[in-house]
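A quick aside before the break. I want you to see a complete sequence-to-structure record at least once, exactly as it would be stored in a machine-readable document. Don't worry about memorizing anything.
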Amino acid sequence: MKIRGDIIRLYRNVHSWAGIMAGLFLFIAFYAGGMTMFELPLENWASQTSKLPAPVPVQSLSELVQKAQASDPSMATAYTLVLHPDAASPSSLMWTTSSEKEHGPARTIYAGLAPDGRLVTRTRTPSQALYFLNILHQRIGLPLNREYGRLVMGIVALLYAVALVSGTIVLLPSLVRNLFALRMTETLRRVWLDFHTLLGVCSLPFHIVMAASAAGFAFQQPIMALEKTLFLPAAVHQSAKGRVHSDHGSQLPLEPTAIVEAFNRQAPDLEADALVYSSRGGKLSLRVMVQSKAQIVRRPEGGYADMNPYTGRLIATDFLPNHQTSAFQALTLIYALHFGTYGGWLVRWTYAVLGFGGAFLFYSGNQLWLSARRRRERSEGLTADSFGTRCLSVLTAGCMIGCVSGISAVLAATPFLPEGGHYQTVEALFYAVLLVCLLVAMCLGGTRSIGSLLCLAGLLTLLIPITDMARSLTSGSVLHPGLESVTLLYGIALMVLALKKRPRQIMGAALTV
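That is the input. The structure line, written in tokens, reads:
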């Protein structure tokens, strides 16, 4: 395929500048986003505290709820019955005593029954460390509130899309010839360029999905307004019918066992996982949660249906797998493609690898641009980097390696932070480490600081298995060999990169040659 040289140069410049403007943000978004693929298991690891009340049989759930309401009447406004307790939700009944949507999991009371029938409760705040990493991913590393964070994310996502399109056009003329040509005998810059090209092309479908869905999430308010206009009238009408029906039904809600039986009759292909109750105006509302690894769901938490708690009739199934309209199935697919909520752990591991690979893609792109910029400046007679080159070099090393160091510091500190780390604590820790890395890069220079910053990132990563083992010895908690093995190998790899004797072999410095 032939494209005029001036067009190729134009799109190469567009690709370079769009990538440079978005690369720093996208590195943090992809690196933290890769971590969110393991948010639930890591949150369980971080939230290890005193033993919580044991689950009770489904037949005893009504008794449990009655005794909990007698002990704390406020819980009747919102509570959750867990039908299949696990490490994430170990007790059969839980409710929150505070709610901060911006700061993740709220203080939660877990309830159970002792062998003699006595109510047993424990209170804890689940670790907010992984929730912070999710928010860091959503707001591309900026400490902004939800509204402004989404706006900036939308702008970056659009730049990201421009970089993808322009980069593909630049590569088209030589796609077949150069795609798999890893010229290992050429200069190190050429090797990095080949890896950058191969990684970008092979993961292009993934990046297109991420760019499009991220832009959709950023501008979700007008999209949701359109969604409600196009797809929700029937659902609203059906919901209204359900409410009218409930007014003429029994004033006492059905037993949990009856709710589960009614759900199974209407959705025999799914299994209820939790019953989420809320009360408004003296009337209960019920949401039945399902976890189906074999189905495509809209959210990582699973699918759900609204049910009339007085009659057991399903009111709305717009977010219930296999029970959606075609329009909602299409929307669910878009969400699922972004969050990886399909295909089980194989897909989640694949998304994690692609996420970390995307982070490397943006780091290598910045370093390739810096290398080309320095070569051009040397050809123009400059003996030192220009101000713009120095600034980008400092930001690339400080922000990107600082992000790696900050996340490792949060995970290393989590075992010994109160309740696994409150949001404000882990946020302050992350940005403190990031600021230190930026200061080191400013003092030493972007290229010369890479070795020191990689060493810091390696040491902080190696602290994760050490602190986990220390917590196990001091509190008797369970060891996590998988987490410890991965972080140990990753920390060693970072240290090897940092301690290479030849500066050419350090990732950032290599591209200055």
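Two observations worth writing down. The two ends are 32 Å apart (CA to CA). The chain has 18 helices and eight strands. We'll return to this after the break.
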